[in-house]
Amino acid sequence: MEKQISYINNELTVNEHKLIFDYDVAQYRCDGEQVFVRLEIPTGIKLTRSAVRNVFAISRTGQIIWRLPIPVLKEFPKFSPLPITSIFLKDEALFATDFMGRIFRLNKNTGEGKIVGATK
Questions:
Q1: What angle do CA 97, 83, 42 make, to 5 degrees?
Q2: Pairing of strands 93-98, 64-67
Q3: pTM for the whole thing?
């Protein structure tokens, strides 16, 4: 079954199941049974640990499977978590980049991440 996905502002619809997020949907990618969603974090807000958890995995039935865990930087605890600015799929793996250009490979089942490079 092909997924029917649409969004307007902070409302995402997956196969007629509507989800409403705190912030606008900026981007989504589909892989198998999951839809990975990145929310746009507005400028000028305080970057709380909750606000930087701006990536979600959604099932085809519209259920949230996971939200980006905090901290995503377990091996570098002195780095502050920052909002994810891009998500992409490559060779069936999920990757994300943050505001500082760090590239994370995210576990598609849990959202746990590991730094694998940098864009800058």
A1: 125
A2: unpaired
A3: 0.88
* pLDDT tens-digit series, residues 75-90: 556 667 788 999 999 9
Question: Which class for 18: exposed (0-12), middle (13-18), buried (19 or more C-beta within 10 A)?
Answer: exposed
The hierarchical CATH code for the domain 5-118 is 2.40.10.480
Q: Say which DSSP state 46 is in.
A: -
From 21, 31, 4, select the one nearest 108 (Cα to Cα): 31
Gap between the Cα atoms of 12 and 101, Å rounded: 27
Determine contact, residues 27/38, Cβ cutoff 8 Å: yes
- The CA-based angle 116-12-50, given to 5 degrees, is 50
Give tens-digit pLDDT for 6-52: 999 999 999 999 999 999 999 999 998 899 999 999 888 888 878 88
Q: Detail the DSSP E strand segments found in 1-120.
A: 5-8, 11-14, 17-20, 25-31, 34-39, 55-59, 64-67, 84-90, 93-98, 102-106, 113-118
